[in-house]
Amino acid sequence: MQNLHIRQERSADRSPVLALVERAFRNEAFSDQREHLLVERLRDTAAFVPELSLVAEKEERIVGYILLTKIDIQGRDRNHPSLALAPVAVHPDFRGRGVGTALIREAHRRAYAIGFGSVVLLGHAAYYPRFGYRPAHHFGIELPFDVPAENAMVVELRPGSLKGVSGRVRYAPAFTE
Predict the structure, then answer these.
(1) Which CATH number fits the domain that encloses residue 62?
(2) Which of 19, 36, 89, 161 is most buried, by CB atoms within 10 Å?
(3) What is the extent of the structural domain holding 119?
(4) Terminal CA-CA length for the chain
(5) What is the pTM of this model?
């Protein structure tokens, strides 16, 4: 999408972002319609990474949002730091125009630049593979709740970053409140 600007969320964006996320998930069948409340809770945790809370603007209007937060993959011998992608939200009037794609690619780029090697998500099995996501079970990684295997996915931002890593994802408590 031309003239789309992606930047870090500012404090003045908090309310517009929550409204956007609520609107984006309002009619989603596979949603509890509470993603905006998750964003609000995550902002006040140690898992929150301000550099990875991004908005997409079109003509000074926020039309998209993405958040990556810290998680651990708990293995038998050690924990491996990673990120969770949740949520990515695009205003319904701007869907199908590349906003989500631009947000995901920019979030991946920034996460890589600040030293993260992987991202875990629960999402649509047909959408995320185009960004390199593969089923988490291929890496021996499992989510802490029962979900279809094809919807639990992970991507290596750094090739080989998940070599020898396996275990259960530990999310920030805000995900289960």
Answers:
(1) 3.40.630.30
(2) 89
(3) 4-175
(4) 36
(5) 0.95
Could you tell me the two tokens for 168? 């259960």
Rounded to 5 degrees, what angle do the CA atoms 34, 40, 69 make?
100
Distance CA 72, CA 125 (A): 22
Question: Residue type for 150, please?
Answer: E
Q: In the chain, how long is the greatest CA-to-CA distance? A: 49
DSSP characters over 42-107: HTTSTTEEEEEEEEEEETTEEEEEEEEEEEEEE-SS-EEEEEEEEEEEE-GGGTTTTHHHHHHHHH
Q: Would you tell me the crossing angle of helices 14-25 and 35-42 to the nearest 10 degrees? A: 150
CA distance 48 to 40: 10
CA nearest to 174, candidates 10, 34, 65: 34
pLDDT 10s per residue in the chain (177 long)? 689 999 999 999 999 999 999 999 887 766 676 788 899 999 999 999 999 999 999 999 999 999 999 999 999 889 999 999 999 999 999 999 999 999 999 999 999 999 999 999 999 999 999 999 999 999 999 999 899 999 999 999 999 999 999 999 999 998 887
Task: Give how many domains the chain has, as a whole number.
Answer: 1
